[in-house]
Design goal:
The complex is a heterodimer.
Chain A: E1 2-6, H1 12-20, E2 28-35, E3 44-51, H2 55-70, E4 75-81, E5 83-85, E6 90-98, H3 101-117, E7 121-127, E8 130-133, H4 138-142
Chain B: E1 2-5, H1 7-13, E2 17-19, H2 27-37, H3 39-44, E3 52-55, E4 58-60, E5 71-75
Parallel strand pairs in B: 1-5
Antiparallel strand pairs in B: 1-2, 3-4, 3-5
The chains are: A alpha+beta, B alpha+beta.
């Protein structure tokens, strides 16, 4: 398992290749990547991501460990960035490796659902007209009930 | 203990972290103590349903006891991913 909380960019291809390398036991690898989406108005300048150093790593580790207990996983990777990002920048990725695809897909969804509302990150959208904290969505909280 | 604030809670209170000497028994008691101190705290803590609290970097709740806790953090619901 690898958990990385970092300001710098990551190379999606290199991370996915490294994650998959040398692994003959796991026939299924799922990767998910989150990208900064522009606002409907098209005027997002910066997405600023704040986090709680220390708690962030603990929360992500706990979520990944829980996924490993629930599904048959060979490995788990979580990378989440913080700091100032622009539209189109990659925010985060998760990868799961499993002998079978159902476990890999479900575990990746579980990781995403939990890190949306249980990992201490906060997003602020900065446009030419001002700055707003992104509000948590009820549907993100509701998504946890299916697990 | 250290008290940390994140996102708009940090902005409203005006600082990311402070050291507080308190005898508050629970998180709610600490919130009441801070709110009575200054308007900016009262404003930040006016709607607890919009806030989350972590004790020693674990999510907790407002009626949790503070005994033995070294770090309290207040923040809005998280928006990761």
């Amino acid at each position: 398992m690898r958990i990385a909380v970092q300001e710098q960019e990551f190379d999606l291809g290199a991370e996915a290749n490294a994650f998959a390398a040398g692994d003959n036991a796991n026939g299924a690898i799922v990767t998910f990547t989150g990208v900064v989406r522009d606002l409907a108005s098209g005027d997002l300048d910066v997405m600023e991501i704040e986090h709680y150093p220390g708690m962030t790593e603990r929360a992500l580790t706990k979520i990944a460990q829980e996924a490993q207990m629930r599904w048959s996983l060979g490995d788990v990777l979580v990378i989440h960035r913080h700091g100032r990002l622009a539209p189109g920048d990659r925010i985060m990725m998760v990868a799961t490796a499993s002998p079978h695809r159902k476990d890999a897909f479900e575990a990746a969804e579980y990781l995403m659902d939990y890190l949306k509302s249980r990992a201490p990150f906060w997003k602020k959208e900065i446009t030419t007209s001002g700055a707003d904290w992104v509000a948590a969505k009820d549907e993100d909280e509701d998504a946890l009930t299916r697990w | 203990m250290d008290v940390l604030y994140f996102a708009w809670v940090r902005e409203r209170i005006g600082l990311p972290k402070e050291r507080i000497e308190t005898n508050a028994a629970t998180v709610s008691d600490l919130v009441a103590e801070l709110s009575a101190r200054e308007e900016r705290y009262a404003a930040a803590f006016s709607d607890l349903s919009a806030l989350r609290v972590a004790l020693d970097q674990e999510l907790s709740d407002f009626d949790a006891p503070l005994s033995g806790v070294r770090e309290v953090a207040f923040f809005p619901p998280m928006t990761g991913g």
